[in-house]
Amino acid sequence: QVQVxxxxxxxxxxxxxxxxxxxxxGSIFRGYGWYWQAPGKERELVAHISSGGTRNYADSVKGRFxxxxxxxxxxxxxxxxxxxxxxxxxxxxxxxxxxxSTFWGQGTQVTVSS
Length: 114
Known about the structure:
Low-confidence stretches: none
Oligomer: single chain
Mean pLDDT: 96
Shape: globular
Number of strands: 11
Radius of gyration: 13 Å
Strand content: over 45%
Largest sheet: 7 strands, mixed
């Protein structure tokens, strides 16, 4: 069975840093993504990395966030630097299997405030 376990969400001050972690297991994965959802808004892609290491980012986080993965542990991370109050929201890890299925973590809350 596929398991997606997230951790790392917390309160942080503007300009600070945070690292989110997503451990996936139970399948062979072709891609990993971090998604963001603000209250009353639709979920949207923040960053994505393929199994081959190709990355893409939302324009709003380029230069501030970095996605990377540990293939041995099948874990993906989102390093969040120079965070802004606008980054506040629930962050979800989504993983795609080579069979074409997508699985989601439970979400982790990130709150950026002074």
